[in-house]
Amino acid sequence: MNYISTRNKNLKITPCQAILQGISEDGGLFLPEKIPTLKETFHQLVSMDYKDLAFTIMKYFFTDFEEKELRNCIEKAYDDKFDTPFIAPVVKKSDVYFLELFHGPTLAFKDMALSILPHLLTTALNQQKSNKEILILTATSGDTGKAALEGFSNIDSIKIMVFYPQKGVSEIQKRQMITHEGDNTRVIGIEGNFDDAQSGVKKLFHDPKLREKLEQNNILLSSANSINIGRLVPQIVYYFHGYLSLLKNDEIHFGENINVVVPTGNFGNILAAYYAKKMGLPIHKLICASNENNVLTDFFQRGEYNINRPFKMTISPSMDILISSNLERLLFEISGGNDLLTQKLISSLQSKGTYTITKSMKEKLEDFYGEFAQEKEVYESISKFFQNTGYVMDPHTAVAYQVYKKYQGETKDNTKTLIASTASPFKFGKSVGKALGLKLAEDDFEMLSEISEVAKLEIPKNIEELKNKKILHPFSCTKEQMQEMVKDFMKA
Ligand SMILES: N[C@@H](CCOP(=O)(O)O)C(=O)O
């Protein structure tokens, strides 16, 4: 399997190289030359546990890993750092199924891929017989940062830097990051929003002077964001796992279609579901749920992507994104692998902040449905759903549920539906508390015990401990200072 760039399909590299590089030199994203179709039958898949399933899916993508190497990565990733042997349990509530992706160490779906990416990277490094060190640059709107720190801490030959919007993450998300221990880590709050952090990181990747300097010091840059294909492929696995769990529990029959709803920000998670569908997972609609930063809703409804609008800070901060990086991979797909057209659209986004796709591209979006939820609706959704079921959704999952209700109302489609439940409600104490009508406290931490009481859920230990942890990363910078921060960290 070769990997090509969305901006140059003649550039062909191996899976190991794609994982190590993270992003293509031409600014494009790597993707497999062809999305593979699964040869195994669902009767074969249904008896597999998460690890065997992960191997079965990932072997199609990471073809230059020996079986032993890939199994070893999987073994180290999906162990007791997850609080359940099911890794990602499916929970039925009311008329939907929640695929709970927050049972890992940082309580967000990012753990699903970031517990394996470090092992994929080090295996790829060994395979290339490289003696280089890797510097991972990460932009986060709240969840990726901590999951990446957790995954990459204290790994030999790897250093990791995380840039987060100082005012754009929840208090608990911020605490999780700035108290993180690990000699090879650095966390920096930037004065700006997630788009500034992500664009800044991409700029660093393509800064010739920085690259030269790093090269002289034998350092390779890579990424822990879903722009790295090594982050995206492991995310395909859990959609199969979700479907198979429904099969195992006799909720659906073999071959039955389901809908999948994904609260969407950087477009990686829903793209993984799209790849799963292309591989053969019976998905009817991919429902792309946005918050008030509804660029993707307009894209799916009108074929126009336009970031010339205010950036809103919402109670679902991980989705506060206007430039959804992974959409570029979808553009490449729906243009029939037209790298020049993809490049043209992205250039227009960079220069004018907008592009419109062609009619034939728009026609290929029929697998998708896009809608958004307003803040008021998100609060109401958490509250009503709790009253009806006793189940507490985090604000991101609530965006997904609200959009699903709009979809159902509009289409009357009663296909069974799996909602990607992306984070624990405990990460967003104040907003969840407000939605549940609890007595409001000054900070997220003071809300935790109240939420725990009404939701009848234990406060996750990792969160409870945070309040008294020492702040180890007091750093901040402007987006213009990001490069300096990298140089500083390299000297440390
Ligand atoms: N929602 C993310 C933003 C980065 O997305 P990624 O999937 O590309 O890592 C976050 O929580 O940081």
UniProtKB/TrEMBL annotation:
GO aspect biological process, one term: threonine biosynthetic process
Family annotation (InterPro entries): Ser/Thr_deHydtase_PyrdxlP-BS (IPR000634), Thr_synth_N (IPR029144), Thr_synth_N_sf (IPR037158), Thr_synthase-like (IPR004450), TrpB-like_PALP (IPR001926), TrpB-like_PALP_sf (IPR036052)
EC number from the UniProt entry: 4.2.3.1
GO molecular function, one term: threonine synthase activity
Domain Threonine synthase N-terminal: 2-78
Catalysis: reaction(s): O-phospho-L-homoserine + H2O = L-threonine + phosphate
Known cofactor(s): pyridoxal 5'-phosphate
Record flagged with keyword Amino-acid biosynthesis: yes
Top-level taxon of origin: Bacteria
GO cellular component assignments: cytoplasm
Pathway the protein acts in: Amino-acid biosynthesis; L-threonine biosynthesis; L-threonine from L-aspartate: step 5/5
Modified residues (N6-(pyridoxal phosphate)lysine): 110
Catalytic class of the enzyme: lyase
NCBIfam families, per database record: thrC (TIGR00260)
Protein purpose: Catalyzes the gamma-elimination of phosphate from L-phosphohomoserine and the beta-addition of water to produce L-threonine.
Protein name: Threonine synthase
